[in-house]
Design brief:
single chain, alpha+beta, five-stranded antiparallel beta sheet, 5 strands, 17% strand
Amino acid sequence: MAEAAYDPGNIFAKILRGEIPSHRVYEDDAVVAFMDVMPQGVGHTLVVPKAPSRNILDADPVTFGPLFAAVQKLARAVKKAFAADGVTILQFNEPASGQTIYHLHVHVIPRFEGIPLKPHSGQMEKPEVLTENADKIRAALGN
């Protein structure tokens, strides 16, 4: 069965084009990182390649080097910014895996001993909390 085509109208494509606001924490020529508006934990950040890809299954392999270099940079920053015990990295592909937005993205979530991830409830975080968390991450990145 053939993969579905990339939809340039997806929410992350709109964020990349600046059509929808986001709490950006990092950007380079290949990727943008911003706060997840429905975080599963404090500091939950998304790293998104600028190249249009539905997910890891159809992405051009040249996307992965810059993407995962940024994921590592953000993982270090969120761990530092929130004094986390660890970092969970998640990436979903197709509906059966839990993918709901069809633009390749990687979740970077600071983790704390004994504190489980919150369920993905669809509940949006307060903008002021996202701003505060984004500021902490940018400071940890040295931006």
